[in-house]
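Subject: mismatched residue count in predicted assembly?

I count 995 residues in my input, but I want to confirm that the predicted structure covers every chain. Input:
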Amino acid sequence: MPSLLGNVFKGWADYSKANEDGGHHDYEHMYAMSIDLDKCTGCNACSTACYAENNLAWVGEEKFGARQAMNWMRVERYFDEPDVGEGSPDSLERGASFLPMMCQHCNGAPCEPVCPVAATYHTVDGLNAQIYNRCIGSRYCANNCPIRVRNFNFYDNAPTAWPAPMDQGLNPDISVRSKGVMEKCTFCVQRIRGASDKAKREGRELKDGDIVTACQQTCPTSAIQFGDLLDETSEISKAWKRQQVELGKYEQNKENPEMRGYRVYEELNIDTKVLYLERVREV
Amino acid sequence: MSKTKIDRRNFLKVLGLGTAGAAMAGCDMPSYVTSEEGVEKVYSYLAPEEYVIPGIGVWYASTCQQCPQACGVHGRVREGRVLKLEGNPDTATNAGKICQMGQSAIQAHFHPERIQNPTIGGKDATWDDALALIKEKASNASWVTGAVSGHQRVLMDVSREAAGNGRHYAIEAVNTRAWEDASAATLGDANPNLHIDKARAVLTIGADFLGTWGNPVQAMRDYGNFRNAPRGVLMAIEPAMSMTGANADTWVAARPGSEAAVVLGVGHVLMSKHGVSAAGMPSAASAFSAMNPAKVKDLSGVSEAQLNKIADTLMANSPSLVIANASHAAAHAAQVLNLMLGNVGQTITPGASLAAGAMAPVSGSTKDLVGFAMDANAGKIGAAIITGTNPTFLAPKGLDMSAALSKIGFKVAIADFHDETTKSCDVVLPMSSPLESWGTHVPANGAAPGTVHIQQPLMENVYANTRGLGDILLSVAQGAGAEGLDGFEDYYGYLRTAVSAMIGSDMEGDWNKVLQAGFATAASAPTAFKAGGDVALGFSEPASAGTLTLITSARQGMFDGRHANLPWLQEAPDQINKTVWDTCAELHPATAAKLGVKTGDYVSINTANGAISTRVFTYKGIHPDAVNVPMGRGHTDYGTYAENGVNPLTIMDATSGDRSSTELLSSSIAATVTPTGENRYLVRSMDLAEQHGRKLVATITADQFDRNQGGA
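Triage response: the counts match. Full output below for your records.
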């Protein structure tokens, strides 16, 4: 265990490094995801599992229409396919495209520097975290998020969303957010903590596959993968490597441009941590 | 222990084993039961099981009851409450996965609007009074249920038999009936195993296997493997885009009701262009030859080029798989195509049947809905016990279901929620949620041979005065005087004896192993396909081009309407039109332009059976002659969360469709659509249909994918 003095030195070293090298973190983990869009069927199992796992309030039609839904994860559906041509004006010739979209836990997160109270920040796990009891509801972060994946509690949703005895089904591992607080996908941080604690109790290192997010767990086609990019043996780092996508770049120089991996809004240099694998279609 | 001496043959019969000749071990009949161990002692929570640690969830195996597929699940129990369901990794039906409806079982379980007390004539009553009344009045009762299997089915059958052989109507609007009948006729096996993962090409005609057809969770797992390199090709022919169609490489719109003609057209091209032979099936061959591409185009709007593309793809990617549920005629033709293409034996293999046939799944149909309405209207049903289905909601107006129900002298509902049907019942018995009760289920689709899924209570009753379906069935059967059941004090005791007999052991350890696994394996025998034989193929004439036709589709989520009271599913957008909390009428943009409406405009849809009014959603994934209104919403008596939307089923016609079918999902009815002039924003999770130049969903070609082994 490091001494108190050691901690002070380390803290100072980190501070000065961060000053020289903007955004530097000593990461312990770098949790990331990959989603295969060719396997995604758009079924909503992931987004509904997220409601069950993360105590997401349902809000009803009117608030949903006012963009006040609390869905951390949404499945976007598009009918156009720009990469395979215009398509017939009369009929769809292929199916639709589905895109599960949630907080991308950007390493260059535009939401973080604008928070006036530092309620949203990067953890040593590489997560973009939200401290609910520090949040003052300025909504600057949501305004700055190019992917629109932050959900603000405009109302105290709990009484309508969990009328007794529905409240008995709440997940006790995480809180129920109150009015005036911003919330978003946490990469199931309670599952990350739970798995780390379990590994610690069992006196072993966390290993690949210990942490399974709720969406990944339920995905019927197993389109979603999750893991630690700092662990070179993990399936997720192998997948990123295979797809020739690297963190910290806003343009990938792929040796083989036919590899399917890409990140959304890469050109914004937000350094997202969700790798999407391109949809495939017969042409 | 049993209180009375029971005759062995009767005993095996009531356990669902019939003449299966199970090895009976001892016949200890355990009585009451805690949710965990089945022991009589009640422990204080201060001294819990050693593995129960406050703050740490323990996972118990059970079976999902959100749709008839009965997937195995694990439920996370913490501090005595069940909090989350996940798929059981060891059940072949779903291998660790569940769908959004399964995820929402928790919400149904803790629902504030569940029925809490028995009622007689709408007034609270005691269980004793209600059961006594049933004993007195429900003689010769017919059973009206959804799909059932396992020991619940056994008890229903012994009840029926003891009470004078009333009929059993199994009603499911979302079903695989057309395919089952076609498979039975062509292969001699109504439920063959399908191997989507082994097919190189899959053609579906109105079978939404990724959404609501068969077991979609299992199909999706196979579909995931199907998409690995070398990548399989998926093609869909349907009037309006389903979830399966939304994932297809080739999607073809067919005029509603013309699907069978298109399948025949595919057969025509396979024979004429590719020389595929229909040897030994002369009448099928002549049906194929008669359906030339010009005729297909005329009937369905599907062009010769599209037919060629489908036939070419099937030829180039063998083995393939053709699945159809659009109509009986389409399903028959599809199975003949499978025979011609050599798929039978490769992507379609024989299923298995339980030796204990009394537990086998009874799949439901709309046909039984029609049969029930007609028999009741004819005064043939004196008493009815209704559970697991909502005939009043499902029945089109033409069936006159409320009149039919009023002609039944005595009606009992066993239900967890009040709905349109329970409202008209004399006695309503409050059912515990599936997460509070015992049961066994034999999955109809995709299970390993002989698998019987065990439904285990995951917590104590949320509402103290409810009883498990099995317990109620046992009381009703005992009341009806079924022999051999006297010794059982509760359903747990019955089930434990029955399962012990089934697995040939009554050891505590073996029972615990079954509970831990979530399933038991009973004796079963593989079925065999029959050898060849000619099949007569037909098709129905759809409405002529340019006439609007109303169709309905089932989407995962609302399903047949049973989940409309679950806010999570109301707020989970429709997969295709992305609407939440409301019904919309899907129209082709060209049709909408002709009518002068756009997304969000109200229209009135009129058929011979009445009118509904709802908002329009336009997209190109629908045939211009079709107006598609997904089913499931528009309840009148299903609680506060289910009030939105309209119910298209009321104005459909369950007696139309092709010659031999009355299935609601196959039916179509001529409709006129008129704008009402009103407009309101249609609330969707996606207003956009296009990506507007952003690289959100990028696409590469299958050639590129296969060239790189899919990036593996």
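Chain A has one domain: 29-277. Marking this ticket as 'not a bug'.
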